[in-house]
Amino acid sequence: MNINTLSKTNAEYESSKLAVALYPTAMRKGVDGKLTYHARPIFRNKLEMENIADDIIATGALEDYTAEQILTVWKVVNNAVIDRVLNGSLVDGGIGTYYARLAGSFDSEQSAFDSEKNSIDIAFRSGKTVKELASQIQPVIAQGNSVRPEVISVYDVESAGEGELTPGGFLKITGKNILVTGDNEDVGLYFVNEDDESKSVTLGADKIGVNTSSEIACVVPELEAGNYLIKVVTQCSKTSPRSESLECIYTTAFNVQ
Q1: pLDDT tens for residues 36-56?
Q2: 138 forms bridges with which residues in the sheet?
Q3: CB-based contacts of 203: which residues, under 8 Å, 6+ apart?
Q4: 171 pairs with which residues across the strands?
Q5: How far apart are CA 247 and CA 187, in angstroms?
Q6: How do residues 190-201 score in pLDDT, each as one tens digit?
């Protein structure tokens, strides 16, 4: 039984079905030369563990527990998992495995961990049970245009192509709903270094020469050599900026010589 079917907040929700939208895949075409598309889930809402505890209570699966007791146990278990993972253990939580992951590069085999260049996080890899359950879900493709941002093309004028970035050159990005706007501090145009996050650069809306829902144009910042992803983070919708939701989209990788 899918306990989310008990939710009364969205009458359109159907058990075992996932609403998705199709987006153009930037700079990638099929063997016939036509534009290809990829699917992304349409998220219904963002839930907290309090909501999950209420779902469990509604099923009657833990009839002797209150929602507060479920949350207390959940927090204790979470803390125990975090402690084990950050001390070098792989923890199988049933739905998948949690493990520590390091980001950032090291200059040599003798390099020490540098908190300004390197970071540690907890990652998750879904397990066999989840994958089997996911294979039974039926994606339902929503029709019509989405309000989420879509990058259609990225063009570096100096190199006259889409595979390289030229620091100090001119960059043009086309798409839909890509206006960089909003009052959240994370809004901006990101040049993300794939190997070393400390080399990444972010441009705020005030540093972008052309900034509309269909086009972004700017001077490429002084990037160090490496491979970069371009990320658009915005609170733009078709009608107005919305402060309650951040949207972001990555392009494919670019090289800086």
Answers
A1: 777 777 766 678 899 999 989
A2: 17
A3: 188, 189, 190, 191, 218, 221
A4: 156, 218
A5: 9
A6: 998 888 888 899
* φ and ψ of 137, to 5 deg: -80, 140
- In the structure encoding, which two tokens stand for residue 230, read together? 């371009």
Q: What is the pTM of this model?
A: 0.51
Q: What's the token pair of residue 257?
A: 């010589």
Buried residues in 232-249 as b, exposed as e (16+ CB within 10 A): bbbbbbeeeeeeeeebeb
**DSSP H helices in 118-180:** 128-134
CA of 47: how far to CAs of 7, 28, 89, 224, 245, in Å? 12, 34, 28, 40, 14
- Using one digit for the tens of pLDDT, what is the confidence trace for 103-142? 888 888 889 998 888 889 899 999 998 999 888 888 887 6
Q: Which DSSP category does 161 fall into?
A: B
Neighbours of 219 (CB within 10 A): 15
Give the angle subtended at the CA of 30 by the CAs of 27 and 33, to the nearest 5°.
80
Residue of 125, 120, 116 whose CA lies nearest to 88: 120
Tokens 């049933």, residue located = 94
A 10 A CB-CB count for 39 gives: 13
The rounded distance, in Å, linking the Cα atoms of 200 and 178 is 20
Residue type (1 letter), 33 = G
